[in-house]
Amino acid sequence: MSAEHLLVDGYNVINAWPELRELGNLEHARARLIELLASYRAFRGIEVIVVFDSPATVPQPPQDIDGVTVVYATAPYQADHVIEALAHRLSEVEGLTVTVASSDSLERRLVFGLGCRRLSAAELIREVQGILSTINRRYGREQPPARAASMAERLSESVREALRQISLDQEI
């Protein structure tokens, strides 16, 4: 377990991040945020948990997506409640630093009372962008575009060719 955990209020950050808001599709914005946080997590060597509100009433198990733990808060709970409960539980672990990224003022006050560090959504955005710039300079890689890539764009040329051959060989 990493000595540092970052808890992210997912929709709060999406709504504060112009690149993600402009995607115009919450599913794409969530996927892009998770992708950006995965790069941030890998570079910093910390644990990242992002929490999203969900209309579902049946609890879903947390998902691991590229090393980022994704949690969907189920009704009647909201993401804020889940983040506060996680912050409370994690803040009791000796030697663990917990940071909560949210611009929600009540949530920020509550987690501060638990001894957690706080980042506003804007501060997290600047940190992530700074890390991505460092990664680009250091490794010469550019981040993928903000729009979601189609399935065909994600496949290698050899796989696309194999799929074309399969579709040509099938009679309709």
Structural description of this entry:
- The protein has eight helices and six strands, in the order βαααβββαβαβααα.
- The protein has 172 residues and is an alpha/beta fold.
- The chain has one domain: Rossmann fold.
- The protein has a six-stranded mixed sheet.
- A hairpin with a 2-residue loop joins strand 3 (63-65) and strand 4 (68-73).
- Helix 3 crosses helix 6 (121-139).
- The longest helix is centred in the N-terminal third of the chain and has 19 residues, at 26-44.
- The chain is globular and about 60 Å long.
- It starts with a strand and ends with a helix.
- The mean pLDDT is 84.
Brief summary of the model shown:
With 172 residues, the chain is α/β, with parallel strands linked by helices. 51% of the residues lie in helices and 17% in strands.
Question: What structural keywords apply?
Answer:
six-stranded mixed β-sheet, 6 strands, 172 residues, Rossmann fold, 8 helices
Name the CATH architecture. Answer: 3-Layer(aba) Sandwich
State the assembly state of the protein chains: single chain
Shape: globular
Radius of gyration based on Cα positions: 19 Å
Main pleated-sheet profile: 6 strands, mixed
Stretches where pLDDT is under 50 for at least 5 consecutive residues are none
Structural class of the helices, strands and pairings?
alpha/beta
CATH class: Alpha Beta
Task: Indicate the CATH topology.
Answer: Rossmann fold
How are the SSEs ordered, and which strands pair?
Blueprint: E1 4-9, H1 10-16, H2 18-21, H3 26-44, E2 47-53, E3 63-65, E4 68-73, H4 79-91, E5 97-101, H5 105-113, E6 117-119, H6 121-139, H7 151-154, H8 157-169
Parallel strand pairs: 1-2, 1-5, 2-4, 5-6
Antiparallel strand pairs: 3-4
Helix pairs in contact: 3-6
